[in-house]
């Protein structure tokens, strides 16, 4: 069998095949089965429902209903008319969640009652959700009696009822019984005949063969533009508004839960709007609207912009006309028709391909190019919105400047618009400030700078003497020409400036300085100067990197940042793989310093200066040129270089992110764009899917069973087996029989650890025996399976929902088997767990949300290439995970479609997507060709091809021509379907006889659109419907198998590496050992020691861990050969192998100079090191001392050398976590002799030896600190925490005065903070620690109690002193000051 027509996971047996035996049918790995008993119950329900509908069965509730008050029934009935469309109602899962969260048991209305109330296909769960709000049982029962499903008074619900008009005479509605009418509903229904037939646009999309009634129903679904005419009629009666509002989901669920379940109003809006979901989500929060598509001029402007950006990314300076036209068509498809990339790539290929005279087709745009255009479309919208906003801002400011408007017209980038905004703020500051005075909100600081002051003086008149304006210089620079020349003055700048002296600028020097400042700002804000400078920096900017002191120590040879530790002028164009983000991270962590500059700065400066200089040679001309040069230097240093540095950094960041996104996308694409495993006998696979057994031992620990599962060609779990071990012959035989009886096409093996290698070896022996036993049967393949998706699946909620009764390892094996049958489906259900997989070494440096969007594109590509069986997906949660990646859909729209299908049954054709109201027009256009209708009786075979319904007529015409059948003979729909089926099944090769080129010419004339590629597409699909375009499943290489089984890669394990190993056995001349990963290694006697030994046990010890060097790796046997000779295992001898290769611009000379400089510093420091004979002395600097004490107790200390000189030492002691005090100690000697007795002085305190100093000073201070920390009023966390604590206390009791203690930011000090009342500010006083107490306000206190009393006295005295000043007499308290209210007590201890 060829790759054509590969099937996967069919939920129903193939009607053209015989039934498989019951042993192999097994249980499905997805979906639900309906038993015979369930079918009988459904028959009973239908019979009961019929009787209810005919009036034979009357519930007690109905009898009570007639006894109730009529007016109350009418009010309640009208109240239920407010229920939203049934698509928005709560389903069973929502009710289950309601019960779980509220603790109430909600009643479900039986199906009988639903049939009696009306032919509604979904339960009115919204009323059921509301029932929990009734407070008493009687009211609840009354609500149950009155519960009914009626049509909403809004138009969409009445349109829905038209589909079931033929049931109106059969089902009696309670509205008719009670004589209650909805006037607005009647009015809408009277308008139905005037709404006409289906529009031409919709008829062009759908295939022929649909009845007029079906088309009319479609028209009712999509409307005729009068959908909201009901809004023109009177509002509902006031009595409706007075009634209690129905409970909403937001009243029951947390917002986060609603968002996670996609039940918010925004989610519903996305579901209902006929725009692809991904487009809506992408533009959420922007000014983008989908109501009015862009006009031709807007499309042309965007296409020009996109073509330029796309060609620049490809390195093309000037795009061709054909390229620009192709881009324009694609932009139009996206922006005007709202078509997504998969649809455009498959069904609009004629617009971005060209065929030469030889008939060779060339792609002007690749699949990846379409995704780039998709991204550029979004960027252009941001750019266009910014341009519009800027124009609106100018209009509001009454700025009508032709030069500015021309700049906006010519702007091509967001940066250029920002330049214009800065230019406007500088040049039209008065207008901007005037607008701000008229508007509310945050104000921009008024421009009262030196620039403005200079322009309001004579300096403004002096500026033209420089001979060239900023705009003229910008034009010269941008065009790289000398269109404008400065006119030379006849006198020197100083002489000229003397005539413009004023009171503000009193001498010529100040006038010149002011003029240079003004001109530098003018040039710096000139948009064309900035544009030209960005051009230069993009081409010539370079990056230099050096480590900080912290980075020099931390970035060792194996650090990931080491290749970039020293970079010298690396051009920005050489950053390719996202490495700039790693450098930027190092800079943010304080490990690296990054400098952005321009190569050959001097030469570049001289070049750009030429556009501002005069060609004169006179002394005055040269003096003016000197002034102009100073202007440019000031412009660059103060304005443009910082701006360019910021721009280059941002450019590199964006490009690095894009590189990582694209590499990650390609990595995932290589995994999912793979078909099922295909062995030598793949042509005999049923449906193209292999029968698979997967085997795993999980962790492989002792006692862990070995699990095997068998999935048949339909993806069903047909059988499974667990055995304790394969080492025992009994269990090995049982596994052999299991494999033999299932005759799988392939066996996959994987596991959590390297112990999997043992299982792999055992299974390999079994497979070899089976293959040898019967040479007539196809051989069974054995391979290792990549388990990255299975590891995430085995414990996921999806796995528990599908196979709750199975073990973790069994679910793991099922996922492995599915990986061999259809790899992409193992990734479609991962959602955000895709981010847990490794795609790129720097993926953790980019925003996760954007990375997820890019990764999902790989799934979108493959899922649409493969197609989704919509009917199978509606019954299989496993297959349904792919539906959200279908073109035009998304998680919300897919959820909506599945919910509707659950109520309305399977689809018999693609057109049913529209006729049943599952998808509106634009969504249908995008998704139709990717939703497959399979195994449905009398289905059109075209519904299981990639041919779009709008091309069905062409396909039928081609089929008829291939069989040479005249059009007159294909006059009815059934005949056309039969002819197409005949061509597909019997005569596909006859399509090769068609001359498609001639036919394409006719079609282009007829439709005024190219169709050549579409004809080729149709031909290929008719010859092999949904032929598999994915890459073939490649057998893992030996390296890949080794990695999958052991987890070791060439980066972690290779020849020459020195690794730790554990000795597991000693047998004469061989030692067996094991790596951390579980891989076995062998050390032979000649590799044990440099000396001659007779037994490995003489050198090695059982159970010990040693360092060994890898001599060889047998990847087939998963074993290593090692050596532990001391000569081979010297420390760091494998550093050259492990170290990553340095960057091409790595500055080895600078690194050597820095190493030498630091070595010299250490040598110098070593010479001057002091040695003090004391047990607490350490050769530390202050940082080393703090690090040493960080893990020790409060009060611990070290004595260390001081940086203040040879007659100083320092004592560092730990005050608290993260707080250390460094005490300077001066050594006092009576004479210069080194043997003279030494005394130690701290401030005024003198000590005879260090022990006395430590006990009577340092430890005494530490004791006082401990006393204060132990006090109840002490608050950890510093001043901010104490301030917050005091505010909380006073807010709780506004008249309360509160105080407390905390550590100060100054080591050796505490702070006493207090707050007199809730309105008073928090005040903090410093407390200095003394050996014998505390000092507050120049007063010492021996204990904490005295300190508190002293504080109260000081505060009370200050309060008394303030009262007369504030109130004129002392009889009143202070309001809002630092005193107390009258009668209020001072802070208490």
TrEMBL record:
<dbReference type="GO" id="GO:0003677">
    <property type="term" value="F:DNA binding"/>
</dbReference>
<dbReference type="InterPro" id="IPR035019">
    <property type="entry name" value="Spt6_SH2_N"/>
</dbReference>
<dbReference type="GO" id="GO:0140673">
    <property type="term" value="P:transcription elongation-coupled chromatin remodeling"/>
</dbReference>
<dbReference type="Pfam" id="PF14641">
    <property type="entry name" value="HTH_44"/>
</dbReference>
<dbReference type="InterPro" id="IPR017072">
    <property type="entry name" value="TF_Spt6"/>
</dbReference>
<dbReference type="InterPro" id="IPR032706">
    <property type="entry name" value="Spt6_HHH"/>
</dbReference>
<dbReference type="Pfam" id="PF22706">
    <property type="entry name" value="Tex_central_region"/>
</dbReference>
<dbReference type="InterPro" id="IPR023319">
    <property type="entry name" value="Tex-like_HTH_dom_sf"/>
</dbReference>
<dbReference type="GO" id="GO:0031491">
    <property type="term" value="F:nucleosome binding"/>
</dbReference>
<keyword id="KW-0539">Nucleus</keyword>
<dbReference type="InterPro" id="IPR042066">
    <property type="entry name" value="Spt6_death-like"/>
</dbReference>
<dbReference type="InterPro" id="IPR035420">
    <property type="entry name" value="Spt6_SH2"/>
</dbReference>
<keyword id="KW-0727">SH2 domain</keyword>
<dbReference type="InterPro" id="IPR055179">
    <property type="entry name" value="Tex-like_central_region"/>
</dbReference>
<feature type="region of interest" description="Disordered">
    <location>
        <begin position="1"/>
        <end position="187"/>
    </location>
</feature>
<keyword id="KW-0158">Chromosome</keyword>
<feature type="compositionally biased region" description="Acidic residues">
    <location>
        <begin position="136"/>
        <end position="149"/>
    </location>
</feature>
<dbReference type="InterPro" id="IPR035018">
    <property type="entry name" value="Spt6_SH2_C"/>
</dbReference>
<dbReference type="InterPro" id="IPR012340">
    <property type="entry name" value="NA-bd_OB-fold"/>
</dbReference>
<protein>
    <recommendedName>
        <fullName>Transcription elongation factor Spt6</fullName>
    </recommendedName>
</protein>
<dbReference type="InterPro" id="IPR049540">
    <property type="entry name" value="Spt6-like_S1"/>
</dbReference>
<dbReference type="Pfam" id="PF14635">
    <property type="entry name" value="HHH_7"/>
</dbReference>
<dbReference type="Pfam" id="PF21710">
    <property type="entry name" value="Spt6_S1"/>
</dbReference>
<dbReference type="GO" id="GO:0042393">
    <property type="term" value="F:histone binding"/>
</dbReference>
<feature type="compositionally biased region" description="Acidic residues">
    <location>
        <begin position="16"/>
        <end position="27"/>
    </location>
</feature>
<dbReference type="InterPro" id="IPR036860">
    <property type="entry name" value="SH2_dom_sf"/>
</dbReference>
<dbReference type="InterPro" id="IPR037027">
    <property type="entry name" value="YqgF/RNaseH-like_dom_sf"/>
</dbReference>
<feature type="region of interest" description="Disordered">
    <location>
        <begin position="1358"/>
        <end position="1389"/>
    </location>
</feature>
<comment type="similarity">
    <text>Belongs to the SPT6 family.</text>
</comment>
<dbReference type="GO" id="GO:0034728">
    <property type="term" value="P:nucleosome organization"/>
</dbReference>
<dbReference type="InterPro" id="IPR028088">
    <property type="entry name" value="Spt6_HTH_DNA-bd_dom"/>
</dbReference>
<comment type="function">
    <text>Histone H3-H4 chaperone that plays a role in maintenance of chromatin structure during RNA polymerase II transcription elongation thereby repressing transcription initiation from cryptic promoters. Mediates the reassembly of nucleosomes onto the promoters of at least a selected set of genes during repression; the nucleosome reassembly is essential for transcriptional repression. Essential for viability.</text>
</comment>
<dbReference type="InterPro" id="IPR023323">
    <property type="entry name" value="Tex-like_dom_sf"/>
</dbReference>
<dbReference type="InterPro" id="IPR012337">
    <property type="entry name" value="RNaseH-like_sf"/>
</dbReference>
<feature type="compositionally biased region" description="Acidic residues">
    <location>
        <begin position="35"/>
        <end position="47"/>
    </location>
</feature>
<feature type="compositionally biased region" description="Basic residues">
    <location>
        <begin position="1362"/>
        <end position="1372"/>
    </location>
</feature>
<dbReference type="InterPro" id="IPR010994">
    <property type="entry name" value="RuvA_2-like"/>
</dbReference>
<dbReference type="GO" id="GO:0008023">
    <property type="term" value="C:transcription elongation factor complex"/>
</dbReference>
<dbReference type="InterPro" id="IPR003029">
    <property type="entry name" value="S1_domain"/>
</dbReference>
<dbReference type="Pfam" id="PF14632">
    <property type="entry name" value="SPT6_acidic"/>
</dbReference>
<feature type="compositionally biased region" description="Basic residues">
    <location>
        <begin position="1378"/>
        <end position="1389"/>
    </location>
</feature>
<dbReference type="InterPro" id="IPR028231">
    <property type="entry name" value="Spt6_YqgF"/>
</dbReference>
């Amino acid at each position: 069998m060829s790759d054509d027509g590969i099937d996967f996971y069919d939920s129903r047996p193939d009607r053209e095949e015989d039934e498989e035996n019951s042993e192999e049918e097994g249980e499905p790995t997805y979906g639900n089965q309906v038993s015979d008993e369930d079918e009988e119950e459904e028959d009973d329900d239908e019979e009961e429902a019929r009787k209810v509908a005919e009036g034979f069965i009357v519930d007690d509730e109905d009898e009570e209903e007639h006894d109730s008050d009529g007016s109350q029934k009418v009010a309640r009935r009208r109240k239920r008319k407010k229920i939203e469309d049934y698509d928005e109602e709560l389903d069973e899962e929502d009710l289950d969640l309601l019960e779980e969260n509220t603790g109430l048991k909600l009643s479900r209305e039986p199906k009988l009652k639903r049939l009696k109330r009306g032919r509604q296909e979904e339960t009115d769960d919204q009323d059921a959700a509301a029932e929990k709000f009734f407070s008493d049982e009687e009211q609840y029962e009354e609500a149950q009696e009155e519960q009914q499903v009626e049509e909403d008074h809004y138009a969409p619900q009445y349109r829905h009822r038209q589909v079931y008009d033929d049931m109106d005479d059969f089902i009696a509605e309670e509205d008719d019984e009670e004589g209650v009418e909805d006037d607005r509903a009647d009015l809408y229904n009277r308008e139905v005949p005037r709404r006409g037939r289906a529009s031409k646009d919709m008829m062009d999309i759908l295939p022929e063969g649909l009845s007029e009634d079906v088309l009319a129903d479609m028209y009712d679904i999509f409307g005729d533009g009068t959908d909201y005419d009901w809004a023109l009629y009177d509002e509902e009666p006031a009595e409706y508004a007075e009634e209690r509002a129905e409970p909403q989901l937001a009243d029951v669920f947390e917002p986060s839960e609603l968002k996670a379940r996609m039940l918010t109003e925004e989610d519903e809006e996305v579901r209902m709007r006929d725009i692809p979901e991904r487009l809506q989500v992408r533009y959420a929060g922007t000014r983008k609207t989908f109501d009015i598509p862009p006009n031709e001029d807007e499309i042309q402007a965007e296409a020009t912009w996109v073509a330029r950006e796309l060609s620049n990314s490809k390195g093309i300076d000037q795009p061709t006309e054909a390229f620009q036209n192709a881009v324009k068509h694609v932009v139009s498809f996206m922006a005007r028709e709202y078509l997504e990339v998969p649809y455009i790539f498959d069904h609009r290929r004629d617009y971005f391909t060209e065929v030469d005279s030889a008939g060779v087709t060339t792609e002007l745009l690749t699949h990846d190019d379409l995704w780039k255009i998709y991204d550029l479309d979004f960027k252009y919208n941001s750019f266009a919105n910014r341009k519009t906003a800027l124009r609106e801002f100018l209009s509001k400011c009454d700025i009508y400047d032709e030069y500015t408007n021309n700049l906006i017209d010519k702007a091509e980038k967001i940066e250029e618009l920002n330049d214009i905004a800065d230019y406007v703020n500088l040049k039209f500051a008065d207008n901007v400030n005037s607008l701000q005075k008229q508007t509310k909100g945050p104000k921009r600081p008024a421009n009262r700078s030196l620039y403005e002051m200079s322009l309001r003086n004579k300096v403004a008149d002096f500026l033209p003497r420089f001979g060239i304006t900023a705009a003229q210089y910008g034009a010269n620079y941008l065009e790289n020409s000398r269109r404008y020349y400065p006119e030379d003055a006849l006198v020197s700048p100083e002489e000229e400036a003397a005539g413009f002296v004023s009171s503000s600028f009193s001498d010529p020097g100040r006038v010149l300085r002011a003029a240079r400042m003004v001109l530098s700002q003018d040039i710096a804000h000139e948009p064309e100067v900035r544009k030209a400078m960005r051009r230069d920096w993009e081409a010539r900017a370079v990056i230099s990197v050096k480590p900080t002191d912290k980075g020099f120590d931390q970035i060792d040879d194996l650090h990931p940042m080491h290749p970039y530790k020293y970079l010298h002028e690396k051009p920005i164009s050489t950053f390719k793989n996202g490495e700039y983000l790693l450098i930027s991270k190092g800079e943010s962590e304080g490990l690296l310093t990054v400098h952005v500059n321009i190569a050959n700065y001097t030469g570049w400066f001289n070049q750009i200066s030429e556009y501002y200089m005069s060609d004169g040679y006179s002394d005055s001309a040269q003096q003016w040129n000197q002034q102009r040069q100073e202007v440019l230097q000031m412009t660059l240093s103060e304005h443009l270089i910082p701006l360019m540095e910021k721009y280059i950094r941002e450019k590199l960041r964006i490009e690095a992110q894009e590189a990582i996104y694209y590499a990650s996308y390609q990595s995932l694409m290589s995994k999912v764009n793979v078909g099922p495993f295909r062995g030598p006998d793949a042509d005999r696979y049923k449906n193209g899917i292999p029968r698979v057994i997967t085997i795993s031992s999980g962790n492989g620990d002792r006692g862990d069973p070995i699990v095997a599962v068998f999935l048949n060609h339909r993806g069903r779990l047909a059988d499974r087996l667990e055995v304790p071990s394969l080492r025992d012959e009994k269990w090995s035989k049982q596994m052999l029989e299991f494999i033999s009886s299932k005759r799988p096409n392939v066996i996959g093996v994987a596991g959590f650890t390297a112990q999997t290698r043992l299982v792999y070896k055992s299974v390999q022996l079994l497979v070899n025996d089976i293959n040898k036993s019967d040479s007539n049967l196809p051989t069974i393949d054995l391979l290792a399976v990549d388990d990255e998706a299975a590891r995430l699946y085995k414990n996921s909620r999806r796995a528990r929902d599908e196979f709750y009764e199975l073990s973790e390892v069994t679910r793991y094996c099922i996922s492995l088997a599915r990986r061999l049958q259809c790899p992409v489906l193992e990734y479609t259900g991962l959602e955000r767990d895709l981010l847990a997989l490794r795609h790129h070494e720097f993926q953790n440096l980019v925003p996760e949300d954007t990375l997820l969007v890019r990764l999902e594109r790989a799934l979108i590509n493959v899922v649409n290439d493969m197609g989704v069986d919509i009917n199978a997906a509606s019954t299989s949660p496993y297959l349904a995970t792919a539906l959200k990646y279908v073109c035009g859909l998304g998680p919300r729209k897919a959820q909506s479609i599945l919910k509707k299908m659950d109520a309305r049954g399977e689809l018999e054709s693609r057109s049913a997507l529209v006729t049943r109201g599952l998808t509106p027009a634009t969504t249908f256009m995008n998704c139709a060709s990717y939703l497959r209708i399979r195994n449905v009786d009398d289905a059109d075979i075209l519904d299981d091809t990639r041919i779009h319904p709008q091309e069905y007529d062409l396909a039928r015409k081609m089929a008829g021509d291939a069989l040479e059948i005249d059009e007159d003979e294909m006059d009815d729909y059934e005949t056309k379907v039969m002819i197409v089926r005949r061509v597909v099944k019997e005569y596909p090769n006859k399509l090769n006889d068609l001359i498609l080129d001639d036919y394409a010419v006719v079609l282009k004339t007829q439709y005024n659109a190219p169709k050549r590629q579409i004809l080729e597409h149709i031909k290929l699909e008719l010859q092999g419907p949904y032929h598999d375009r994915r890459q073939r499943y490649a057998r893992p290489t030996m390296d890949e198998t080794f990695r999958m089984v052991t987890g070791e890669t060439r980066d972690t394990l290779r020849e020459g590496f020195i690794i730790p190993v554990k000795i597991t056995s000693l047998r004469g001349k061989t030692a067996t050992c094991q790596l951390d990963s579980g891989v076995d290694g062998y050390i032979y006697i000649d590799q044990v020691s440099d000396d001659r030994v007779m037994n490995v046990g003489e050198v090695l010890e059982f159970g010990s861990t040693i360092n060994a060097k890898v001599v060889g790796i047998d990847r087939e046997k998963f074993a290593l050969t090692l050596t532990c000779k001391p000569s081979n295992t010297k420390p760091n001898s494998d550093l050259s192998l492990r170290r990553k290769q340095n960057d091409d611009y790595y500055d080895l000379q600078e690194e050597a100079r820095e190493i030498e400089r630091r070595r010299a510093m250490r040598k110098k420091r070593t010479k001057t090191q002091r040695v003090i004979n004391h047990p607490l002395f350490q050769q530390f600097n202050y940082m080393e001392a703090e690090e040493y004490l960080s893990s020790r107790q409060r009060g611990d200390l070290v004595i260390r050398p001081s940086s203040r000189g040879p007659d100083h030492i320092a004592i560092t002691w730990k005050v608290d976590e993260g707080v250390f005090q460094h005490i300077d100690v001066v050594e006092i000697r009576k004479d210069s002799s080194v043997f003279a007795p030494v005394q130690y002085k701290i401030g005024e305190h003198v000590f005879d030896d260090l022990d006395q100093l430590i006990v009577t000073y340092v430890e005494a201070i530490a004791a006082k600190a401990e006393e204060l920390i132990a006090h109840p009023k002490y608050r950890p966390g510093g001043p901010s925490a104490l301030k917050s604590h005091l505010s909380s206390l006073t807010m709780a009791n506004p008249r309360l005065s509160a105080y407390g203690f905390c550590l100060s930011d100054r080591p050796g000090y505490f702070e006493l903070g207090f707050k007199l009342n809730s309105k008073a500010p928090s005040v903090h006083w410093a407390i200095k620690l003394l050996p014998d107490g505390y000092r507050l306000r120049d007063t010492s206190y021996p204990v904490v109690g005295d300190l508190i009393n002293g504080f109260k006295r000081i505060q009370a005295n200050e309060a008394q002193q303030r009262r007369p000043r504030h109130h004129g007499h002392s009889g009143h308290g202070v309001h809002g000051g630092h005193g107390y209210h009258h009668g209020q007590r001072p802070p208490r201890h």
